[in-house]
Amino acid sequence: MSKPICIIPARMASSRFPGKPLEPLLGLALVMHVYERCRLSEVLDRVVIATCDDDIRAAAEVRGCEVVMTADTHPGCVDRTEEAISKIAADMDDEALVLMVQGDEVLVSPRMIDEIVEAHRDSGAPVVNLVSRLASARDHDNPNCVKVAATPAGRALFFSRSPIPSRARTDDVPMYQQTGVIGFSKSFLFQFGRLARTPLEIAEGIDMLRTLEHGYPIQLVFTDTETIGVDTPADLARAEDVLRSDATTAQYLEPVH
């Protein structure tokens, strides 16, 4: 079986925060933090940045990162990941794992990656998604934060921008957010783009609902460690504060005070 390959899709034309992949945190561009943190995992064969932007390509090459250019017409990061794999690993085994780590998941860690790989091997699910605990009701109520409800065995039941499970009867409910750290079997990655978009996917604006609505399982990996998907300048500042004291950061970046 082929070893897992990690693809980091990134583009400059973010609707909420244009240019964010190259925004600096502790002197290093956001997407480079993600790349370096993924590279620390020993279970991955390759880590590759997939982009349609020459600025990102140039920055990646200066740092010695592997990069592949993709079309600028992709509607989402999964499509960009599929093109990248078709270009660099077409002969990869069909059931091998393609790990997609979105270029703004700045607190991804080697342990998270290892747990995704292990869950894919043990569950046989075509999709494995990291979800992280939410610390506050404010985050649970935030529609920009995608929440998840799960079975006791850790299979996803539903993703929503609404607060699920509901706190109407009790505040003691499991509050987890979806992250942009998602593993696909190669065969399902290529199948996903051919599946018709679905009503709940469109209503919620959450592409992984397409997987559930077509009847495919998603295995979840739960972490109590904070994750931050950088969508705004405020997220960037918050992430920089966390990175400054994060143990993983010290493994690839000189301390910055």
Please, could you describe this protein's structure?
The chain is α/β, with parallel strands linked by helices. It has one domain (5-251): Spore Coat Polysaccharide Biosynthesis Protein SpsA, Chain A. The chain is 31% helix and 22% strand. The protein is built from nine helices and eleven strands. The chain has helices spanning 30-39, 54-62, 77-88, 110-123, 137-141, 186-192, 199-204, 209-213, 233-244, and strands at 5-10, 24-25, 28-29, 46-51, 66-69, 97-101, 127-133, 147-150, 156-160, 176-185, 218-223. The protein has a seven-stranded mixed beta sheet with strand order 5-4-1-6-10-7-11, sandwiched between helices. The chain has a two-stranded antiparallel sheet with strand order 2-3. Strands 8-9 form a two-stranded antiparallel ribbon. Helix 2 links the parallel strand 4 and strand 5. Helix 3 packs across helix 6 (186-192). It is globular.
